[in-house]
Amino acid sequence: MVTKEQRQVLIEEARRELARRTMRDFVLYVDDNYQMNWHHRLLCDYLDKLACKEIRRLMVFMPPRHGKSELVSRKFPAFLLGRNPDTSIISCSYSADLASRMNRDVQRLIDSEKYAELFPQSHLFGKNIRSTAKGSFLRNSDIFEIVNHRGTYRSSGVGGGITGMGGEYIIIDDPVKNREDADSATMREKVYDWYTSTLYTRLEKDGCILLTLTRWHEDDLAGKLLKAAQEGADQWTILELPAVCEYPPKPYD
After folding, report:
1. Angstrom distance (rounded) from CA 66 to CA 63
2. 81-109 as b/e, with b when 16 or more CB fall inside 10 Å?
3. Residue 143: phi, psi to the nearest 5?
4. DSSP sequence for 142-158
5. What would you report as the CA-atom Rg of the chain, rounded to the nearest whole angstrom?
6. pLDDT mean over 102-113
7. pLDDT tens digit string along 182-200?
8. Contact 44/239 with Cβ under 8 angstroms?
9. Where would a tag sit more exposed on the chain, N or C end, judged by fewer CB atoms within 10 A?
């Protein structure tokens, strides 16, 4: 007969196993304070498909302050590196400072006790260094490496240089800061040129791209890429969650 203590152990192990498999369960396991709404669950389902490479090009359209960065830029990279400590990630946002802050948030999550319970093979070097030496691994606000594995995470601001590494997963979280930048034709063209001439060239074979943003302008990076898709370029899966619903939504549990 199973005792109450044994039942609790089994339940906890089942929670951990689910957290290793799906983004939804991972987020709820590592963050006790996270309040998951239906749109977060939906986004997690799409991220699971990207993690398994059922889809390789994903655009997520959401308004500001609805939790997209928490999932896309903080939790998802840690989830990917836990599932595969040999994967490589390049993560970008509109400024180098914001990208570095996201980098540090990912590191803090990987350093947490709950993360170690799920993925003990994925851990970081204990000191901040800027050059490698025998037996040490990079860890700073621009790049970190998974100890004894090939896994890397590189952060960059849009427009910045990305040299010396490729990315199996490329994450772009809000390539422009606000509507003012989005309304600038010069800024929109600059972002697109950087994407095509710099960032895209770093994508590894069979790699995945995740673009998440607020649609301030029809001719933003997403608009340009979707126009290119009509002409035979990369085809994208789109998750659109507008602030104002202009059509009857489909129910989602």
Report:
1. 6
2. bbbbbebbbbbbbbbbebbbbbbebbbeb
3. -155, 145
4. SEEEBTTS--EEEEEET
5. 19
6. 95
7. 888 999 999 999 999 999 9
8. no
9. N
